[in-house]
Design goal:
five-stranded antiparallel beta sheet; 27% helix; 5 strands; globular; alpha+beta
């Protein structure tokens, strides 16, 4: 995986803050892998990680596209951004 990205944008949905690290248009496919659930949940319970497979570049690496942080588990967008960053750092370390 590439170097750890910084959050680009935070959007509030009905149940989650969607913390975007990379533009979804960069990817052919986006998935929510089971293997990331334990790492994400150990930082904020109920969080999900979405990974994407790049359209161009030719390698088989999947990169983190975004992290979904449950609204009920954090106190606002700033904390969602901080916790999502910790999740990404934990996965990519």
């Amino acid at each position: 995986m590439a170097e750890t990205p910084s959050p680009e944008e935070v959007e509030r949905g009905d149940d989650y803050y969607h913390v975007r690290f990379r533009d979804p248009d960069e990817f052919d496919t986006i998935r929510t892998p089971d293997w990331a659930e334990n790492a994400a949940g150990s930082v904020v319970e109920g969080s999900e990680v979405r990974t994407g497979h790049e359209k161009e570049g030719g390698d088989d690496d999947w990169e983190i596209q975004s992290v979904l942080v449950p609204i009920d588990e954090v106190d606002g967008e700033d904390e969602a951004r901080e916790q999502a960053q910790k999740i990404v750092e934990k996965i990519e370390s």
